[in-house]
Amino acid sequence: MTGAPGLPVEATLVAMATLPQVGPARLAALGALGPPPATWATLVRAATDATAVDDLTRQLGEVTSGRGGGSSLRDLVRRWATAAAGIDVVGLWDAHRAAGVTVWRRGCPPYPDEAFTSEALPPEVLLTLGDPRALDGARVAIVGTRSCTRYGLDVAAELARELGAAGVAVVSGLAAGIDAAAHRAVVGVDTAPAIAVVASGPDVIYPRANASLWRRVVATGLLVTEAPLGTRPEAWRFPQRNRIIAALGDVVVVVESHRRGGAAITARHAMDQGRTVLVVPGPIRSPASAGCHDLIADGAGVCRGIEDVLVALGMTPGVRRARSDPRPAPSGDAAVVLAALGWSPATLDQLTATSGLRVAEVVAALDVLAEHGWVAERGGWFEQVAVSALRG
User: Fold this and answer.
1) Which of 63, 128, 250, 334 is an S-S bond match for 32, by CB 3.0 to 4.6 Å?
2) What pTM did the predictor assign?
3) In what order do the strands lie in the sheet with 102-105?
4) Average pLDDT of the segment spanning 346-356
């Protein structure tokens, strides 16, 4: 099923995500109406067809249990229809591919479905820059306030550096303060990846002061977002981003947090998802630690250092966790085809063109890759399978 001739379903979902006022819940509601390409076609038709507007309004009201129904929902559908009629889905998809953005759809590799099994609102799509294999090993989220103290910066960097040395990926939000300190430390060690979850499009660097760090994370790890190219970091996107940080961390460590800070929101999401939350205590008079002490009072564990984090991960302190792939390494034509495939869906014709092999050779190579668990095929589209997807 394609969003437009020659396009995968992911292309339509990205187009839906660009519609005005579409966040995770509304994108999920649109996805629940049926195959995304068919819903998109109805949206485009609704720009000039009042009956289509009524049909979509009714269907959305049903899947959202009437929340936001009535005239306000109908007005929103009209806005979506007008916007959809002006969106070039093919051009939008080509722009994402040209920017090196890979789009993961829920339920399809390399989307890490196992990370979101306890999340009430799993992302319909994740847009990524970098290497999806960053998700294959143990992961710890280190989060905290932008308005941090020197103590907080030092602790975040120390924990991230020691986790990286132990082979553990560090997840954070690439914001100023604690997030940046953690990511800067782990990319400096260069023995485990940084995984950054951001609230803007993959091409909209925020804050600008982190531009060089942003590029280093993309070059050595993975950047993840729900937002398409060009999306500005609107305030409502940050709390939504925090649930993804919580889901991607096997353990969440809060270094410093104000009472109503984003780090506290991330920790609450992690608790709701059944994740282990550890909190670094601080001075009782420090506003930057007030949220941390509240979390401890509510049952979060105390983080006294790297040993507590490694024990929570089930690792022995002092032992580095190696990243392994149980699948036999591709060779010959299979290696050529896997390199040509990369992390974006591709058809047989596209793989033949990019690999330089004959059709029969590509087919034989795909058979080998599928047998060994490297590639999956859906509706004529071939996709690479990450180790994290195998474990789901």
Assistant:
1) 63
2) 0.84
3) 102-105, 125-130, 222-225, 194-197, 169-172, 139-143, 251-254, 276-279, 301-302
4) 91
